[in-house]
Amino acid sequence: MAKGDIPTPPGTGTVGKLTPDQKVLLREMWSQIFDMADHGTVNLPATPSAETDSIASSSKQEPEKKKKSGGWFGTYKGSASPAPSSSSASDNNDTVRVNLADIGLSADQLRPALWNNILGDHPDSLLLRFLRARKWNVANGLNMILKAFKWRLEDDIEEVKANSEDALNEKYRGFRLQMEMGKSFVHGQDNDGRPVVYINVRLHKPADQDAKALEKFTIYVMETGRLMITPPVETACLVFDMTGFSLANMDYNFVKFLVQCFEAYYPESLGVLLIHKAPFVFWGVWKIIEPWLDPVVASKIKFTRSDSELTQYIPANHLPDKYDGGKDKYQYEYIPVAAGENDRMKDTETKERLVDEWKALMWKFEALTREWCDLSKPTNKSTRTESEVEAERDQAAKDLRAAYFRLDPYIRARTLYHRSEHPVLQGDGSSIWTYKN
């Protein structure tokens, strides 16, 4: 474990389950994000400690690139122009100044990247994922989340959410084919209440779709799957079904992309990954893949050699009966995009009203979070107690979630899991699974 790393004690580290020390670090990360949003810079201790570690060495200056817009989110009050990117050292020898420009972002981009990522989650949940992934080292967590924001902007993750499967298929050859064949889909929950993502590896042929279409499809599954993760659950279960696998199905570039997603862009999202019925030929492949894995991700990989072993992780009543021991008569079927299912996205008047309602709650949550962060400062003059501010802040987070899902159908295309015979995704953000036992 690196200097400054702090392990997460069992049962802690998530919303509502923070130790006093973890709460301090969460406040620190929020404060640093606010500093960057307001000024484009943040000052960090020059000497690594248990709470912070300089990220200046990893934030090298990059050529200026054309920035993507904030999409439906629009502009923000309180945004400031980024400080000149040439200033990476503070006048104070005890601190190092880190600029957003050195990461490749602007202050105007920071809030859209943050809030477009939060969606209907408790805002703390996103920051806590990156803090846990970096062993509660605030600066390393900040560096990681900013780089994830940059990736989301550059790879236009909002495109996957805002466009129908048909529209995505027109742009990315083979996108819809992957859904039609059932290469990957989400169905049911495991023993810990996590949504289960099935990947039928034998159906993958690298030439069947453009590489970018495969990446976009992966993001589609991950961004849709996020909607099925209901607090207090925070992770998903993946089943890599290797039945019928041959070397013709192997795609090393995709594996690298998937590993990067779980390690860098969606940290702390993987609960367990089951590699099921791996044939002998796979073990040579595994020797190549295993060194690429972060130890934390690698520790979540389990091998199941028989169908009956799957029931150690997935209840028999939830497991499709194609697997021995499974009792659910579920069979995957792709239901095409229905005419008019996204018409609400054309209703700009309602969308703008709901966006304004959601933004007002966002600003309220941010104001309460700033107040919460300031409570621990010697200069704080608030007459309110920490418990009072936290209670109001938690209620604001609940109101934000409700407002987001009222807005969701006006900014996000419907998915297979909205239009199925028994829709999984509900209008209030909950998920209802139907099992055929």
UniProtKB/TrEMBL annotation:
Domain of life, source organism: Eukaryota
Gene3D superfamilies: CRAL-TRIO lipid binding domain (3.40.525.10)
Stretches assigned to the CRAL-TRIO domain: 186-331
One Pfam family recorded for the sequence: CRAL_TRIO
Polar residues bias spans: 44-56
Region ranges (Disordered): 1-20, 40-93
PANTHER family: PHOSPHATIDYLINOSITOL TRANSFER PROTEIN CSR1, PHOSPHATIDYLINOSITOL TRANSFER PROTEIN CSR1-RELATED
Name of this protein: CRAL-TRIO domain-containing protein
Source organism of the structure: Actinomortierella ambigua
